[in-house]
Amino acid sequence: MSQSPAIAAAHRVLDVEMEGLRRLQVSIGTEFAAIVEKVGTMKGRLICAGVGKSGHVARKITATLASTGTPSQFIHPTEASHGDMGMIGTDDILLILSKSGEVPELSDMIAYGKRFKIPIIAMTANADSVLGKAGDYLMLLPEAPEACGETRAPTTSTTMQIAYGDALAVALLERRGFTASDFRVYHPGGKLGAMLKSVADLMHKADELPLVRETTPMMEALLIMTAKRFGCTGVIDAQDRLIGIVTDGDVRRKAGADFAHLKVGDVMTASPMVVSPHALAAEALAELNQSGRSVVFAVDDQEKPVGILHLHDLLRAGVM
To answer: SS in 3 state form for the chain?
Structure first.
């Protein structure tokens, strides 16, 4: 069966853009490392700017930087010329995007940066352009054809701009040791926020914990299991360390005529699965899925139980 024109066009576009990304990859050199160091040590914000399609990309780069811990703000060059230039401080750095580097609307912002000695990072495909020459640092886009052919609408070039911005954001993220816990601070809502919650955010604590000793009669343990409604109870030793767990399944397996005379130690499963309260909720979910269990205890550094987390808690929080 012959390929439809639409699918052929899609494949052609992706081939052209992937080639552009390959060219970008091999073009990145030591200046990029200098840019990461400069931005990584700045006292202010990275001000991103651009006009047209480059402006849309600059907004996206701003959002990515901000969400990964680099203070960033988008300012439209035209609005900057009409009062918003005052948003740019002397501790800031300018990241200005333009493929051609010859956009008239950028001139006021470039002049402002030079006047107040604000470092300018130029992302352009033309190093000899007004923007390219004005930049204290250059993020040069390699020569590559646009994916739309003769119309030359920004396609490959904007893909390279976005990828270059992502590379900058990730390099800065890794430079400062930005972690998933840090990322969660900037993403408190939605599914991503749920996945980045910690076990401590969702677990049941203190009086809600079902806990017994090895010597506790099983009939008493059953009352605690019923009252706490987790379908299990943790077993702790004389130092309050978690050493075992009794689940509904353990009870069924030991059920018999002598059950009323059994102690918890006769029924429990030793060395139960545990998680750290500092672990991500997504990690706890993975552990539960792998083990086939529906509940897990959180223990501290002394192996003492500090919380209990049920699969239903994860479902309610949207961690799936």
So the answer is: CCCCHHHHHHHHHHHHHHHHHHHHHHHCCHHHHHHHHHHHCCCCCEEEEECCHHHHHHHHHHHHHHHCCCCEEECCHHHHCCCHHHHCCCCCEEEEECCCCCCHHHHHHHHHHHHCCCCEEEEECCCCCHHHHHCCEEEECCCCCCCCHHHCCCCHHHHHHHHHHHHHHHHHHHHCCCCHHHHHHHCCCHHHHHHCCEHHHHCECHHHCCEEECCCEHHHHHHHHHHHCCCEEEEECCCCCEEEEEEHHHHHHHCCCCHHHCEHHHHCEECCCEECCCCEHHHHHHHHHHHCCCEEEEECCCCCEEEEEEHHHHHHHCCC
